[in-house]
Specification:
Largest sheet: 12 strands, mixed
Number of helices: 19
Number of strands: 21
Oligomer: single chain
Strand content: 15-25%
Strand order of the largest sheet: 9-8-21-20-19-10-18-17-11-16-12-13
Radius of gyration: 33 Å
Distance between the termini: 66 Å
Length: 589
């Protein structure tokens, strides 16, 4: 027996030692059992001296199962003893019949292995948090490697891990996931357009929706969204052959010209605008050189738009009458359905026309918030970033996702690493959002819900998972939507971040598992304390002193919070710090 209870204050029990402390190994942080009849109440030694020990109650062992959380208190007559190895196994080890992996060793019990329940960890959203250099990347690499390296009787063939690698540091970490098994494969997609080793990132522009394009054009006003939507609805009429869409194109063009005619501007202004529009946008039925007949004589549209000395049109009524014959009351614009291809150039033409039809030529107010979209689109088209949206073979969204999950030699890839190190922060954020929305939409539309699982792993997640303008513009934030709805569709988030206090509270609140590494910043410590209410202040205080690779593992994949030394990955990611001794110093010999 270790000692007898002398006080119980809340969940802290103080015992008076009866054993000789100097005959025992270090007891701080270790577990004890208060056993009376069939009840086994588990405690953790907080602190003490040679006379007294303070013990925090953490749970119970009932019928061979550990239940975390202190409910029952021991009676004063209950003896206290050190926990046995068999009881430790009940507390820390997962069911051997489940897919569990060994992730590292206990900090408190030397050489005691700690396991992770793969199903519980990866069937929920999770977060890996800690300062730069605390071991997040190493631990992420090790956990993923172990899943594939330790696959024996069955393999994780249908795994779909989409890893967004902010610095390209994970690139070498998974090259060997298929060692000994060619059915396990790893794929790298890079934003480095000069790379000859890896596949370049490319997204078919025709698979982007209104919200995706709004992100690319840095839309910041909700009035810009309808213009982008209209441009998308028009793009098919500037992509397909004129014979396929002639009636609809005539209708759209006629209505836009009529709007300019009835804008109330002076005849000279109207003529100039109409000449500009019909020079760029025309059909075989509506153009400046079409002849219009009236009373036995003919004039071209160009001649009808001539402004006489009196300041009036030569014959605007004839043009109006002609154009009204092309309007169709039953015709409505619809968004493209993904069955035909188009690119940035076609969308730019459609956007030009959308701006005209929305009144950019007749209203200064519309011009102020709408024309900026055209400027930003031109900037994108003239940058290297435009190459990310060049895709030379037509593909549906289903085919594109299948291509993402297939290696160059035609095999199924389990880990797809998007190296986004070669774009700026804004483009990186947009690319991550576009892919995340595409994957979410795809899974949410499957008839057999939950038959497929996608995991989105975000390195430097605080750069993407933020409370930003998306809710104002679109009515949702894609990461918050995935956090709230993703589990039922099979799409899960893994957020890896050194600044947890900058993450969306909605997203982080939906996480069921956490690996929390060394932290210093008071805001981050306070944030971690708020999202992990059952973690003791004693454990939180230890975060400041953790070594690299040491973390608090907490959540549904663990029976209780545990401090773990995560094993080192092999090979490791390229996340080591610069070696100043090598960079600064040179030999003088």
């Amino acid at each position: 027996m270790l000692g007898k209870i002398i006080s119980i204050m809340g969940d802290v029990v103080r015992i008076k030692l009866e054993a000789n402390l100097y005959d025992l190994d270090n007891l701080m942080g270790k577990n004890v059992i208060f056993e009376e009849n069939e009840a086994k109440i588990v405690g953790e030694i907080l602190e003490g001296d040679s006379t007294y020990l303070d013990i925090n109650l953490i749970g119970e062992i009932i019928l061979g199962k550990f239940i975390y959380g202190s409910i029952v208190k021991p009676s004063f007559r209950t003896p206290c003893r050190i926990i046995t190895t068999e009881e430790l196994d009940i507390m820390y080890q997962n069911d051997p019949n489940t897919n569990s992996i060994s992730m590292g060793s206990s900090v408190i019990y030397r050489n005691y292995r700690i396991s992770l329940d793969v199903n519980s960890f990866f069937s929920n959203h999770f977060a890996i948090l800690g300062n730069s250099g605390s071991g997040k990347s190493y631990s992420t690499s090790k956990i993923l490697q172990t899943i594939f390296y330790e696959a024996k009787s069955s393999i994780p063939f249908r795994t779909n891990l989409f890893l967004f690698d902010a610095y390209g540091e994970y690139q070498p970490a998974f090259n060997e996931i298929g060692r000994g098994n060619p059915n396990l494969n790893y794929k790298v997609i890079t934003t480095d357009l000069n790379s000859t080793e890896f596949q370049h990132l490319a997204i078919p522009f025709w698979l982007l929706g209104v919200d995706d394009i709004a992100l690319l054009l840095n839309a910041n006003d909700e009035n810009q969204i309808p213009i982008i939507e209209k441009a998308l609805k028009l793009v098919g009429y500037f992509t397909r052959s004129e014979d396929e869409v002639l009636d609809q194109k005539n209708d759209i063009l006629a209505r836009s010209i009529l709007d300019i005619i009835f804008s109330g501007k002076s005849p000279s202004e109207i003529r100039n605008k109409l000449t500009s529009v019909l020079t760029k946008f025309k059909t075989k039925d509506i153009n400046l050189d079409i002849s219009l007949t009236k009373g036995g004589w003919s004039r071209t549209v160009r001649q009808c738009l001539f402004v006489e000395e009196s300041g009036k049109f030569a014959d605007i009524e004839l043009v109006i009458q002609y154009l009204e014959g092309f309007t169709q009351n039953e015709f409505q614009l619809t968004l493209p359905d993904g069955t035909f291809a188009y690119g940035l150039k076609e969308f730019a033409l459609a956007l030009d026309f959308a701006l005209i039809s929305e009144g950019v030529l007749t209203s200064e107010k519309v011009f102020d918030y709408a024309n900026v979209l055209k400027i930003r689109l031109n900037t994108l088209m003239n940058s290297d970033y435009a190459k990310y949206f060049e895709y030379f073979n037509f593909v549906t969204v289903e085919g594109y996702i299948k291509d993402l999950l297939t290696t160059s030699n035609g095999r199924k890839a389990q880990i797809i690493n998007f190296n986004i190190n070669y774009v700026d922060d804004r483009m990186a954020k947009n690319l991550v959002k576009i892919y995340s929305k595409m994957l979410f939409d795809y899974l949410s539309k499957l008839k057999d819900r939950g038959s497929l699982a996608f995991h989105i792993l975000l390195e430097e997640a605080h750069r993407y998972v933020q409370e930003d303008i998306d809710i104002k513009l679109f009515g949702y934030n894609i990461f918050e939507r995935i956090a709230k709805e993703g589990r039922k569709y099979g799409i899960l988030l893994g957020m890896i971040s050194q600044r947890p206090s900058e993450l969306s509270e909605t997203a982080i609140s939906q996480c069921s598992n956490f690996l929390v590494f060394k932290m210093f910043h008071p805001n981050d410590l306070a944030f971690v304390t708020s999202i992990l209410p059952n973690i003791s202040s004693n454990l939180i205080n230890k975060l400041k002193t953790f070594h690299s690779g040491t973390c608090i593992a907490y959540g549904s994949a663990f029976k209780m919070p545990v401090v773990v030394n995560i094993d080192e990955p092999n090979p490791g990611p390229l996340s080591q710090n610069v070696n100043i001794s090598k960079v600064w110093y040179v030999s003088q010999q």
